[in-house]
Write a structure and sequence with these properties.
- With 345 residues, this protein is of the alpha/beta class.
- It is built from twelve helices and ten strands.
- It has helices at 3-8, 23-33, 50-61, 95-98, 103-119, 153-169, 206-213, 240-248, 263-266, 271-281, 307-320, 326-340, and strands at residues 11-14, 39-42, 70-73, 75-77, 80-81, 124-125, 175-179, 219-222, 254-259, 285-288.
- The strands form two sheets. The chain has an eight-stranded parallel β-sheet. Strands 4-5 form a two-stranded antiparallel sheet.
- A hairpin with a 2-residue loop joins strand 4 (75-77) and strand 5.
């Protein structure tokens, strides 16, 4: 397989539009058909109703070139819920609320959520969030939104496994997030640089390490937080030392960056630099949302409809100039192909 085609499978990209005749959707379909985009992510602005989104996902997936298309969404329940009751979907509890349910009731709850995702064409859910919620303060975008299952490893792992089990039963891939722990952050990486050096505790690693040892994790998403105790120069997403903790712990699955369009990245790194640093650090895949909501701190941000083509060119140039190793790109591609073998819808 050509290098460019391999690279295309290492990107999950957002787009604008809701109906198949919309310009953004038509362009996305052509990019998928051309083999320049192996995965897409939908946001609230792509979703109007159950009927509409089912048509949209079906339309895009039928353009898949050779390999299944990753059709991703953030569906945790509560405040992070793209398939929302306001748009005609069921609506689900926050992780904090679910943590008060019995294991049996939690499994039933998440099985319903997984069924709804599968019914509407999704095969990858960026969930569960397994960040800790500290006892003495609150992260505005984790604990503040009730996205955490609690402050104890045992509790987080228990309910994280239940989410993963429910998703697997409906052939939905999972992604635990945000490694190495975002719950101690006092800021929002959508808005800019966040340093957790003074708050972060090593125990925040435990849910991630216990879950990857359980062999049920499909992806691990990185956090853009900076922690001088793990890396004195780079945020976690760009830290080889931080991400190597996963490999040293035995994890052989996919490591995927959080959205590289977030202000914590965009304010400090160019498009090309962010891509090269992400792969050099050990990410297998990256996300570019093309969403202005991700780049809250950048007034000049504009979505780029030609991002997939530019992404491939950047990685190719980096390989040819020895900034990235082709063997590493190929290894990441093989991990993605292994995962795509499990896609049923």
């Amino acid at each position: 397989m050509e290098l460019a085609e391999k690279i295309s499978h290492l990107l999950i990209v957002g787009f604008h539009g809701v109906h198949e005749e919309d310009e953004g959707v038509q362009r996305m379909a052509k990019q998928i058909s051309a083999g320049t985009a192996g995965g897409v992510i939908l946001f609230g602005y792509n979703i109007e109703s159950p009927t509409q989104v089912k048509k949209l996902t079906g339309f895009l997936k039928k353009h898949a070139c050779g390999q299944p298309l990753l059709m991703a969404v953030d569906q945790e329940g509560g405040r992070v819920e793209r398939l929302s009751p306001q748009k005609g979907f069921k609506g689900f509890k926050t992780p904090k609320a679910v943590s008060h349910l019995s294991a049996e009731d939690a499994l039933k709850h998440y099985t319903e959520m997984a069924s709804e995702l599968a019914e509407h064409g999704f095969n990858l859910d960026f969930a569960p969030c397994v960040d800790m919620d500290p006892l003495h303060y609150t992260c505005p975008v984790i604990g503040g939104l009730d996205r955490s299952f609690g402050h104890e490893t045992r509790q987080i792992v228990k309910y994280g496994k239940i989410v993963m089990e429910a998703l697997k039963d409906k052939h939905i891939l999972n992604c635990i997030k945000h490694f190495p722990g975002h719950g101690s952050a006092l800021g929002d990486t959508h808005e800019g640089y966040v340093d957790v050096s003074e708050q972060w505790e090593e125990k925040e690693l435990r849910p991630f390490m216990e879950l990857v040892h359980s062999q049920g994790v499909d992806m691990v998403m990185t956090a853009h937080i900076f922690n001088k105790h793990l890396d004195a120069k780079n945020p976690a997403t760009f830290s080889k030392g931080t991400l190597s903790l996963l490999r040293e712990g035995g994890y052989q699955g996919i490591i995927i960056s959080d959205d590289l369009h977030m202000s914590a990245i965009q304010k400090h790194y160019s498009f090309e630099e962010s891509i090269v640093k992400a792969f050099a650090a050990g990410n297998d895949m990256v996300i570019f949302s093309n969403s202005p909501a991700a780049a809250k701190g950048i007034e000049t941000f504009k979505p780029d409809p030609l991002l997939p083509e530019k992404f491939i060119q950047v990685v190719q140039r980096a390989v040819h100039s020895n900034l990235l190793k082709e063997e590493s790109i190929s290894a990441s591609f093989e991990r993605v192909m292994t995962l795509k073998k499990n896609i049923k819808n």
